Amino acid sequence: MEKKNSFVFVVMVFAVVISFALYEEQGKKAAAKAPQASTGNQREGLAKFIAASETLAAQAAEVKKGSASPETRRALAESFINLVASARVIELNFVWDRNSPLLGLNPPFSISLHTSHKQTAGSIPGLAFAADMMFFSGQHGAPTIDAIGHISDNLKLYGGSDATTNEGATGLLALGIETYPRERLVNRGVLLDVARLKGVDALAPGQEITAADLEAVAKAEGVEIRPGDSVLIRTGFGKFFEADRAKYTGFRPGPGESAARWLASKKIFLTGDDQLSYEVVPPSGTVFPAHRILIADNGIYIVENLNLEELSKVLAEEQVYEFLLVLNPLRIKGATGSALNAFAIVP
Fold first, then answer.
1. Alpha helices in 257-333 (DSSP H)
2. Residue 288, exposed/middle/buried by CB under 10 A (0-12, 13-18, 19+)?
3. Angle of helix 2-33 versus helix 70-85 axis, rounded to 10
């Protein structure tokens, strides 16, 4: 068990080091395009981050070879903690409550206090407590992630099994959210900022994002979409989650069928955006082709209701659109999805 844990730790360390090495590479490209975009403080901060990453890599190499002393292992742990702690954490969440925007196809959400401090006062000397009770669905949350078993295509789930026989009284029998792979709790993220490329605060209601749009954004940002990536798409509609909930729940911009096929062709792991249903909902209606193509046909996770506004600003300032994405679905057996606490880590 100790050897296994050490191996996992070293892998995590190298993942961080490699990610920031990629960040350095992209930063150099961005600086060559627009040197004025980076301030002295930003360059100094990135230089320190790179130096710390190099030290960490050297220490991790010793651990991997089995030649590291206990002192080196402790130093590695401290370096790793300091490196991550010095990074910027950008929250990708909205606050969820009883009035949050909710797709009409999904169950309602409610929360109340089941037990109050007044009720429990005196039951334990000096201690009282409150406990809530929620009516909660896997499709609630901001953001929320769909389990692979949430969507079928002509009643076929990803892998070809029959959707109707995969259901029981306590939830999905397979492909529930509890099967989300732990090695993807931290993953390479890429932001395709479609709204920014098109020069608008938000795309128009019902505006479709096409494969050509995604290709153009990736080219303009200088990013490569790789197998296993988590690709987030900004429509700008997230700004209406709290400010204009009627608009947020109306016709929505988002990826269409061609965009979904483009993403699937890249063999990504996950994709998400900043609106209620992920994919475009035009006035003519939708049969949710992106959900079927991505989840049921290709086993790609979908995340909805992301807050991408701060991330968009930070990455645009740096002209680097890659980051570490942290997602942690609840391990609820048989659940069709989960609310997320999601955040991005950048130098």
1. 257-265, 289-291, 309-318
2. buried
3. 40
Kindly calculate the radius of gyration of the chain based on its CA atoms and give it in whole angstroms: 22
Residue boundaries of the structural domains of the chain: 2-86, 144-346
Instruction: List, in order, residues 6 or more apart from 35 with CB less than 8 Å away.
Output: none
pLDDT tens-digit series, residues 99-129: 999 998 899 999 999 999 999 999 999 999 9
CA dist., res. 189 & res. 270, Å (int): 9
Sequence-distant (6+) residues with CB within 8 A of 6 are 63
Residues 185, 175 contacting (CB under 8 angstroms): no
Q: In this structure, what is the dihedral angle of CA atoms 33, 37, 41, 43, given to the nearest 10 degrees? A: -10
CA distance 251 to 161: 33
Q: Please, which residues bridge with residue 231 across strands? A: 190, 271
Residue whose structure tokens are 């992630």:
145
Chain mean position to CA 11: 20
User: For the CA atoms of 137, 140, 145, 151, what is the dihedral angle to 10 degrees?
Assistant: 60
DSSP string across 54-114: HHHHHHHHHHHHT---HHHHHHHHHHHHHHHHTSEEEE------TTS---TTSPP-EEEEE
Cβ atoms 282, 206 nearer than 8 A? yes
Measured between alpha carbons, how far is 57 from 162 in angstroms, rounded to an integer?
47
- The number of residues in the chain equals 347
What is 144-346's CATH number? 3.50.30.50
Quick: pLDDT tens for 219-271.
999 999 999 999 999 999 999 999 999 999 999 999 999 999 999 999 999 99
CA gap 312, 323 in Å, rounded: 11
Reply yes or no on whether the pLDDT at 37 is more than 90: no
Residues paired with 255 in a beta bridge: 209
Q: What span, in angstroms and rounded, lies between the C-alpha atoms of 45 and 347?
A: 8
